Amino acid sequence: MADKAIDDLMLENRKFPPSDAFKRRALITDTGLYDDGNADYEGFWARQAADLLTWSKDWHTICEWNLPFSKWFVGGELNVAYNCLDRHVLAGRGDKVAFYWEGEPGDSRVITYAELLAEVSKFANALKSLGVRKGDRVNIYLPMIPEAAVAMLACARIGAAHSVVFGGFSSQSLSDRINDAEAKVLITADGGYRRGEVFALKPQADEALQSTPSIESVVVVRRGNNPVDMQAGRDHWYHDLMASASPDCPAEPMDSEQLLFLLYTSGTTGKPKGIMHTTGGYLTQVAFTHKYVFDLHPETDIYWCTADVGWVTGHSYIVYGPLANGATSVIYEGVPNYPANDRLWSIVEKYKVSIFYTAPTAIRTFMKWGGEEPAKHDLSSLRLLGSVGEPINPEAWMWYHEHIGRGNCPIVDTWWQTETGGIMISPLPGATTLKPGSATFALPGIGAEVVDDEGKHVSRGGGYLTLTHPWPSMLRGIWKDPDRYRDAYWSRFEGRYFAGDGCKLDDDGYLWLLGRVDDVMNVSGHRISTTEVESALVSHPSVAEAAVVGANDPTTGQAIIAYVILRSGLEVGEGDLRNHVAKEIGAIAKPKTIYFTPDLPKTRSGKIMRRLLRDVAEGRNLGDTTTLADANVVNELQKRASEAPSED
Ligand code: WTA
């Protein structure tokens, strides 16, 4: 037992091969691409780069690999905005809708490729007039409005790198990120809509701007109509700049390795890391994955990714991938429960969405709200569903499949990270037999392997997920900190990228992601993944969502503590749930204590904060909780924990 990295306890036997109806239209229905990618991954990616993108100058070397630093399509030149906009307009598709934007209060905008190109070109000229030059950094702190995509593409057009900071982050987080990137311009808004109210952004930005010496100009988009202070000389209204900007701004060719953006991601400790992504390789992989993983038919599909542009999913699968492929997308500004719990399904019905991409945390919330919400709407336009961000519990997968997909949409469970830039492990929906809860296999051209503590290849059972060779959209490093880059990703296993995730392989070679390895518990010498116990809990019909942590225990090392949210109107006793887990996984995985709670502490991107739950379970004082979506949840949990005796 001791030599196993992570125990493999849960078994899932359900299988879903692609239906004939889906296969008939699918882009990929066999293993040809995999054979191609495995035979020669560099050649494979070069063919994708040539096929999917328009280059103004050819590369001379496909990949330069100086472990751990890679360069792709070296010597090649292209412009990302040209690839996302101009070439579609030049090909006569200017009237095609790029974005259906739905505001939370119910207002909406339809933006064609030609209109988006004009707006991006104008804003690129506006940025130039503020002194932004190739190589500069521009910070973006906006709500989910079309101007967020416009700002990103305008930067790409002139070779400035953007650094988007999620609009829900505090002024402190914003100023830290601005200062690390030494950004010259900040693009923000007066405010945005959330849960039916305007939240102010500019006042938060103003607070950050007190300690950001690199910022020379601020651009403010009007959205919330809330009162804001404008500092003369520094602050400009977006609409004023646009009124006088020329719509003529040639897209400059960029070196394939030109910095496209920084995106900050928090490590478990220390200051956030500025993850660097560049131009040619990044766009190749996001275009490839968006096309084949989502089986995109750009003429007929309406695609909707519910992420925020502040996260990498928004960068790669709202902006760059879909636009590079000429897709039509929906963007929604607000929360899923405004004005009611069926808002997302009313949007699917309104725009006839055919491809829907969301996160397990959202799916479990929909489960909690109940199947009657989606049942109020005609969801028959949907033909493919996606999931990203966390392991999806098999029961959440089944619920998604039945209640949203009505039993006939494949689900692509896509594993990737801010650092990987694009999807790495995922089914190809016309070719792969799905198993609920498994992200299935590495995509063509990607090398993934599970290894044990010593870095030895594991062919069956649990271990650590590693990536064995470079891929085009891999991070190029951590901004200004190459040592931390080496240390964080390349030091644990020699010659391999360590993703930080546990993973197991089943008898059929399917990959099952087990969550971050710091989420692995050690109970009486058994290393049990929190994900598996959570999935067992969620497979009980009364449970909507569960979070599991290991708390110090004098006898077993760690004890399993579970926090459980019930589905509305349903009940179950603690003893019954413990027995249910014993039945699903084994007695070893029975939670010692179960707390029932109406809510769980989550990061603003929706990941459960297990560290905090561990602190609560172990009775520790909590430190900074400001990165939480809702800090009250923790106070409530602490109260319950101090009142409830634990059961042995
Ligand atoms: C987790 C989000 C299981 C994983 C794109 C990873 C997943 C981290 C999945 C990256 C998935 C993402 N199955 N786990 N399909 N997708 N993760 O940087 O732990 O916000 O390391 O990127 O999310 O999160 P990030």
Topology of this protein?
Blueprint: H1 20-25, H2 32-39, H3 41-52, E1 61-66, E2 69-74, E3 77-78, H4 80-93, E4 97-102, E5 108-112, H5 113-129, E6 137-141, H6 146-158, E7 161-164, H7 171-181, E8 185-189, E9 191-194, E10 197-200, H8 202-209, E11 217-221, E12 235-237, H9 238-243, E13 254-255, E14 259-265, E15 273-278, H10 280-293, E16 302-305, H11 312-324, E17 328-332, H12 343-351, E18 355-358, H13 360-369, H14 372-375, E19 384-387, H15 394-404, E20 411-413, E21 448-451, E22 461-467, H16 482-490, E23 497-505, E24 511-516, E25 520-523, E26 526-529, H17 530-538, E27 543-553, E28 557-566, H18 574-584, E29 593-596, H19 610-617, H20 632-643
Parallel strand pairs: 4-17, 6-7, 6-8, 7-14, 8-11, 11-12, 16-17, 16-18, 18-19, 19-20, 28-29
Antiparallel strand pairs: 1-2, 3-13, 4-5, 9-10, 14-15, 21-22, 22-23, 23-24, 25-26, 27-28
Helix pairs in contact: 2-3, 3-10, 4-5, 4-6, 4-11, 5-6, 7-8, 10-11, 13-15, 19-20
